[in-house]
Amino acid sequence: MALIEARSLGKTFGAHRAVDDLSFTVRPGSVTGFLGPNGSGKSTTMRLMLGLDRGEGITTFDGVPFTGLDHPMRHVGALLEAKPFHPTRKARNHLRMLAAPNGIDDRRVDEVIDMVGLTGVRGGRPGKFSLGMGQRLGIAAALLGDPHTLILDEPSNGLDPQGITWLRNLLKHLAQQGRSVFVSSHLLQEMALLADELVVIGRGRMLANGPVHDFISHSSLGSVTVRSPDLGALAPALEAIGASVAAADGGIVVRGVTAEQVGDAAHAAGLRLHQLATHEATLEEAFLEATGLSEEFRGTHRPSEGGQR
Ligand SMILES: Nc1ncnc2c1ncn2[C@@H]1O[C@H](COP(=O)(O)OP(=O)(O)OP(=O)(O)O)[C@@H](O)[C@H]1O
C-alpha cells in the first residue's frame, strides 16, 4: 500500500491565492500526472504535500503526514524543482551523505547511480553536470530509500528523448510494482504515454481529476463521424439528445455525445448506421480546452490574430 491523500490544501502568498482547496488521492500501482499552466500552483502543492511550505490542509501517506514518518526517505522519494546539490561535492558522496542518516548503505547508493545511468560520472561534481545529468542525480536521490511513494516535480526537465523514454519506463515499472507515483510535467504527449490518472489545476484550483481517458473523452474537441442512409432522420434524433451535428464529406460529424450514445439513439429510432468512428481529442487539446481561461501568464502573440506563421 502507498496511498497518498491530499485534503483541502491551500496556500496564500501575500494577496495571491496560489493553491485553493485542493483535495485528491494518488492510488498505489498507478502514475498520476499533475498538470497545470505556468504558475498554477503545482510546485507549491508538492511542497505543501511534503510539509516544506506552511499552508492549509493535510497530506497523508498511508495515513501518516510526511513530518510524522519515521524514516521519510524510505517511504517517500521526492524531486522538487530546486536542486540541493553542493556543486563541488562528488555525485556519489552527495548520495552517501543523504543515505547515511537514513541507514541506507553504499551498495544502494551504487545501485541507484546505476539505475539512473550515472555510473560513468559518479565521481564527477554536480556543478559541472548538464541539466539532464543533474536531473538524473535528483531522481537517484529520490530512489535511494526504495520508497513506496514518489513525488516528482518536472523530472523530465532537461532530459533528451532517450532520457525521457528511460524515465517513462522506469516510472511505469515502479508503479507496476505497486508504488504511487505523482509527477508533474509540461510535456503533454509524454504525459499521455505515462500517466494513468490526472490531477489538472488552474490558478490553484482543481479543474479535473480522474483517469486520463475520461479527461480526454470529456473534451468537446472529440467527435464522432457517422455515415448513414438515414441521415435526414438521424441528425434531429441526435440533436434531441444534446449533440451538435455538422455535415462533412457525405456524412455528419457529431460532437457532445459518445459513439455509444449515437448508436443507441439510432437503434431507438430504427435508423441504419453504415459507419460510426470516434476521433478522440489529444491530451494537449483537452488540456488547453480545460485550462484556457485559467492561464496565469498569457502571451499577446496569437497566430490566428495575424501573427507571422
Ligand atoms: N515563495 C513565493 N513567494 C511568492 N509567490 C510565490 C512563491 N512561490 C510561488 N509563488 C507564486 O505562486 C503561484 C504558483 O507558483 P508555483 O511555482 O507553485 O506554480 P507552478 O504551477 O509550479 O508553475 P510552473 O509550471 O511555472 O513551474 C505563482 O503565481 C507564483 O508566482
From TrEMBL:
Domain ABC transporter, residue spans: 4-228
The organism's place on the tree of life at top rank: Bacteria
Gene3D superfamilies on file: P-loop containing nucleotide triphosphate hydrolases
UniProt-recorded Gene Ontology molecular function terms: ATP binding; ATP hydrolysis activity
Keyword list, A-Z: ATP-binding, Nucleotide-binding, Transport
Keyword presence, Nucleus: no
Keyword Transport attributed: yes
Alphabetical list of InterPro entries matching this protein: AAA+_ATPase (IPR003593), ABC_transporter-like_ATP-bd (IPR003439), P-loop_NTPase (IPR027417)
PANTHER family given in the database record: ABC TRANSPORTER, ATP-BINDING PROTEIN (PTHR43335:SF4)
Stated family: Belongs to the ABC transporter superfamily.
Protein name (database record): ATP-binding cassette domain-containing protein
